[in-house]
Design brief:
With 206 residues, this protein is α+β, with helices and mostly antiparallel strands. The chain is 24% helix and 40% strand. The chain is built from 3 helices and 12 strands. The strands form 2 sheets. Strands 4-3-6-12-11-10-9-8-7 form a 9-stranded mixed beta sheet. β8 and β9 form a beta hairpin. α2 packs across α3.
Length: 206
C-alpha cells in the first residue's frame, strides 16, 4: 500500500489491518476518529519514497499498551527482532538517540534511531532512523494508541505509519511489503504480550 501524495504530505489510500484488509480508506473501526488519525499521521513524502500504515486491535487497556509503545529505551519488550538497545544520548527528550541490535533473520545487525515525538496525552510516539547497516534510508514512523470498548471491555487500537526511501533496485511495492511485514510482527507481538499481561492482572484482581 503506497502513500497518496497531497501537496507534499502523504496519507495512505486505505486502512490495512494486521491480519485483514479493509478497502475504501474509511477506517477500520468506528472507535477511531479518522480525521484525528489523518492529523497525527502526516508524513512529508518526497520523490522515490513510499508510505503506508497498519492498524492492530488489542484486547487490553490503552494505558497498558501505551506503556510498551512509549519505552524508547526498551523496544525489545515487544519487538521480536530486537536483541538489545543502548541509549546513546538524552533521557527521553526529543532528540534522544538509541542504538538497536537486530537479531539474525533481517538484513541488518544495528540501527541507530532518534526519538522524534513522545506525547503521553495524545499517546503519540515517533522515531527516525539516522544510521545503521541496513537499507532503510530516511525511515520515519509514527505510532498512535487509541482506546476503544469491545463488548463492554476496554481495548486498544494501535495505528503505525511510516515513510522510507525506495532502495535502488527495488520497487515501491517491494519496499512497503518488507517494512509492513516487520511492523506486522511487532504489532502481533505487542498484542500477545499486552493481552497476556491484561489477563494476568485481571486474574490477580479477582
Amino acid at each position: 500500500m503506497v502513500g497518496l501524495k497531497n501537496e507534499g504530505c502523504g496519507f495512505p489510500r486505505g486502512w490495512k489491518l494486521v491480519g485483514e484488509e479493509v478497502p475504501g480508506g474509511i477506517g477500520p473501526s468506528p472507535a477511531i476518529d479518522v480525521d484525528s488519525v489523518r492529523r497525527l499521521h502526516r508524513h512529508e513524502i518526497r520523490e522515490n519514497q513510499c508510505s503506508s500504515f497498519l492498524v492492530k486491535r488489542i484486547d487490553a487497556p490503552v494505558h497498558l499498551v501505551w506503556s510498551f509503545v512509549r519505552s524508547f529505551d526498551e523496544p525489545q519488550k515487544y519487538k521480536p527482532f530486537v536483541s538489545r538497545c543502548i541509549m546513546k544520548g538524552g533521557d527521553f527528550e526529543i532528540g534522544s538517540v538509541r542504538e538497536v541490535n537486530v537479531k539474525s533473520g533481517l538484513p541488518a545487525t544495528t540501527s541507530t534511531e532518534r526519538l522524534e515525538r513522545l506525547d503521553d496525552n495524545e499517546r503519540i510516539f515517533g522515531i527516525r532512523i539516522v544510521g545503521g547497516d541496513h537499507r532503510l534510508k530516511n525511515y520515519s514512523s509514527i505510532i498512535t494508541v487509541h482506546p476503544h470498548c469491545k463488548n463492554g471491555r476496554p481495548g486498544t487500537t494501535v495505528v503505525e505509519s511510516f515513510t522510507v526511501d525506495v532502495p535502488e533496485g527495488n520497487t515501491e511495492d517491494e519496499t512497503c511489503y518488507f517494512v509492513e511485514a516487520v511492523i506486522q510482527c511487532n504489532l502481533k507481538s505487542l498484542a500477545e504480550i499486552s493481552e497476556r499481561l491484561a489477563h494476568n492482572q485481571m486474574q490477580q484482581s479477582q
